[in-house]
Amino acid sequence: MNAAQEDRPVPYMERTRHYYRALGYEHDYVWATFAEVPFARFAKPLATTRLALITTASPPGLANRDSRGVRHVWSGEVTPPPPTLFTGNLAWDKESTHTDDRGCYLPIEAAAGLAAEGIFSGLAARFHGVPTEYSQRKTMGEDAPELLARLRADGADGAILCAL
After folding, report:
1. pTM flag (> 0.90)
2. What's the pLDDT score for residue 131?
3. Which residue in 38, 55, 49, 45 sits closest to 155, CA to CA?
4. Which residues of 107-129 are buried (b: 16+ CB within 10 A; e: fewer)?
5. How, if at all, do strands 122-123 and 126-129 pair?
6. Are 85 and 59 a contacting pair, CB within 8 Å?
7. What would the DSSP string read from start to end of 30-99?
8. What is the mean pLDDT of residues 76-81?
9. CB within 8 Å of 39: residues ≥ 6 apart
10. How far is CA 48 from CA 109, 120, 129, in A?
11. Phi/psi zone of residue 136: left (φ > 0), alpha (ψ -120 to 50 degrees), beta?
């Protein structure tokens, strides 16, 4: 490898393949792909749209786990906002940053300020937490339909994903 190659960053997908191989997996991780993007334009102006916040953080105590330890979609009240959520189980650069500021993964106050300015009509009464799973089957077959049902029950027209 020459100096120019050593200074070049390793692409994310290539690095992840090497990582999984180093862990002993025989097959490369298969990333989810979609022939059609599962998003749609809002049917009405953003200023009249109610939004929900979705986070990848977990409730304190990991209350979103069932008796087998499997994580599931969970929900919390926007008012009053939770003082903190659990982020220690997620992959983020813990040496360079922190998640002491709840606004970085659940920006309730910032979103409420934008709603007060008329950018959108307001927040749904609940925010929702989604597990970060490596199972596309569970994400698509269980978590995504459950999340959509909760968003519809809350009257949300759209959502903002606040992922770590």
Report:
1. no
2. 86
3. 49
4. bbeebeebbeeeebeebbebbbb
5. unpaired
6. yes
7. -----SS-S----SS-GGG-EEEEEES-B-GGGTTB-TTS-B--EEEESSSPPS--B-TTS-S-TTT---
8. 94
9. none
10. 19, 6, 24
11. alpha
**Residue 69 corresponds to which amino acid?**
G
pLDDT digit string (tens) for 102-150? 888 899 999 999 999 999 999 999 999 998 877 788 888 899 999 999 9
Tokens standing for residue 155: 């009257």
- CA-to-CA distance for 105 and 96, rounded, in angstroms? 16
Domain boundaries, the chain: 1-31, 46-162
Q: Which pLDDT tens digit goes with each residue over 20-64?
A: 888 888 888 777 777 777 678 888 999 999 999 999 888 876 656
